[in-house]
Amino acid sequence: MASLYSYLDELDQLLLNQPDDCMLLSQLDGFLAGVIVSPDLILPGQWLKVVWGGGDGDGAPDFADTASFQHALDLIMHHYHTTLASLDRPGAFEPVFEEDTQTGETLWELWVEGFCQAMDLAPDGWERIAVGGDPGATAALAGFMALKALDDGRSGISRDEEDQWDREAPDLIPMWVEMLHEWRRENDPNRHSPVSRAKVGRNDPCPCGSGKKYKKCCGLN
Fold it and tell me: Radius of gyration over alpha carbons of the chain, in Å?
């Protein structure tokens, strides 16, 4: 991993120890960035279940006890707010990308997958950007769509063009995220962020996405 914050080693290992459906760290980092810059507010109750379920949100967390589950939520929310704070400082945002340990190549694909999963949670807001006429935000959105098409194998461009996108993507992604964050702030300056600690009440819906109350689901551990 590139440029890990001190707590991210622990979060990385925690995610690796979860069932295969759970997001990995780079995917989670992209997902949280997408949640933060989303034109429409996405609450933790909506997006946490996608973290455990990876691609389809149908997975479930696996922790030994309630305290371990709460600690995982705390780490995820801490990273959410760390990411938000970096975006509020121009030039400070740095995505967490995977790295090919043999070639040293930066692997951006998993990050973009997570970002696009966040976009899928509130598509109407992104449509407003697409038709809104803001050149920076529109270009950023088009860039992410181009990377997603490239990752999906449906870009329809030449191999040389693919290689160029592959080389430039790690530098373009943070700029695009900052453009989208600025658009969100200018168009919805009063939007509040979730609280830093996602404390789960026993009668609250379980963050695993099961639809049950926490006390009758993961709170039983």
Answer: 18
In angstroms, the CA 115 to CA 9 distance is 21
Q: Tens digit of pLDDT for each residue in 66-75?
A: 999 999 999 9
Inter-helix orientation angle 159-187/135-151, to 10°: 140
**The dihedral sign for the CA sequence 195, 186, 89, 119:** positive
Please give the DSSP secondary-structure letter assigned to residue 56: T
Structure tokens at 51: 């973290």
The full set of domains in the chain, from first to last, is 8-220 (1.20.120.740)
Say yes or no to pLDDT of 175 above 70. yes
Nearest to 28 by CA among 54, 64, 46: 54
Using CA atoms, how far residue 97 sits from 22, 85, 169, in Å, is: 17, 19, 11
pTM of whole model > 0.90? no
